[in-house]
Amino acid sequence: MLGSGALSIAGIWGGLPPLKSIFDSVCIFMAAFDTGGFTPQSQSILFYHNFPFEIITISVMLLGSINFALHYAVWTGNRRELYRNIEIVTLFISIMVTLSITAWGVLRNYVYGQSLPFSSKTFYHLISGHTGTGFSTIYPRQFVNEWGALAMFGVTLAMAIGGSVCSTTGAIKVFRIGVIYKALRQDIKKLLIPETAIFVQKIHHIKDIVLEDKYVRISAIILISYVNLYIFGTIAGMLCGYSLSEALFESVSAAANVGLSCGITSPSMPAALKIVYIFQMWAGRLEFIAVMVLLGMVIATLKGKR
User: pTM above the 0.85 mark?
Assistant: First the structure.
């Protein structure tokens, strides 16, 4: 619980009473590491107005989004995994790409005049979205009114990708993105080399793994399923009168189990949209395979009754 201790110190340093600081820090540490996103305050991390507090929560969010098998490998001395593992490499590249899009969108709108608020808020929400945590240091409508569509798209893309498999995050997962990229690279290389040449594509995830069709197929199925779920929620949001950027942001956040909101999710939202988001959260959390098995069982049972 070193993370909660550091959060407690940051909270006391920020002016919170010791007991409240300890209580809040334990709650936030657990919500950050399991990427749950709930906080004791309705304003999320914005309530604390504490930069060291934000830095520590970013670290805990990232740790929670990393494959627990990788945690074990590093703790047992295999630190080379930190720069060889396909998930870590893909996660780093994904963060850099989505951060660039988000930062450019924020810069275009001249939202923050100083470098520290710009970098802290932009990077914070990008990591919060990418790890599927949902912590926030701004009000929901600021995404729409201040950040703009391009910056929202950067965060939306990060939420859509998510963190690692065997972690507490939702969404597509960087492992599947890495596998599909490697498969595309393999197919391109096969076109360039002689037909008689033998080419074996490998990925490194704790150990070297030969990239077989079954890994590519299941990764593609999950990716396509998530994209369809994102589109379904986006169309539902637009039919309820919201813009494309707002509807897409909220749909991806729900389906990826993130929790960030641009202001659509509220007690007064349309009842039909509530049902859509509930379904998205359920299906996205189960990652479709379990849903497909359930549907198959229901269909089989109905056929048996006939």
Answer: yes
**Do residues 140 and 193 both lie within one domain?**
yes
Confirm if 262 and 289 have CB atoms less than 8 A apart.
no
All residues at 6 or more sequence positions from 65 whose CB lies less than 8 Å from its CB, including other chains: 35, 91, 130, 131, 132, 133, 162, 163, 164, 167, 168, 169
Please indicate, yes or no, if residue 69 is contained in any of the structural domains: no
Model pLDDT for residues 73-126, shown as the tens digit of each residue:
888 888 888 888 999 999 999 999 999 999 999 988 877 766 767 778 899 999
- Exposed, middle or buried: residue 9 (CB in 10 Å: 0-12, 13-18, 19+)? middle
Q: Number of structural domains, the chain?
A: 2
Q: Which two tokens stand for residue 288?
A: 């479709």
Instruction: Give yes or no: residues 53 and 86 share one domain.
Output: no
Token pair belonging to 146 = 């201040």
CA triple 55-56-60, angle to 5 deg: 120
149 Cβ neighbours under 8 A, 6+ residues apart: 105, 244, 245
Distance, in Å, from the CA atom of 295 to the CA atom of 291, rounded to the nearest integer, reads 6
Shared-domain flag, residues 11 and 110: no
Same domain, 57 and 80: no
Measured CA to CA, the distance from residue 223 to residue 215 in angstroms comes to 12
Q: At what angle do helices 86-108 and 148-161 cross, to 10 degrees?
A: 170
The DSSP symbol for 80 reads T
Rounded Cα distance, 252 and 239, in Å: 16
* Residue 51: per-residue pLDDT: 85
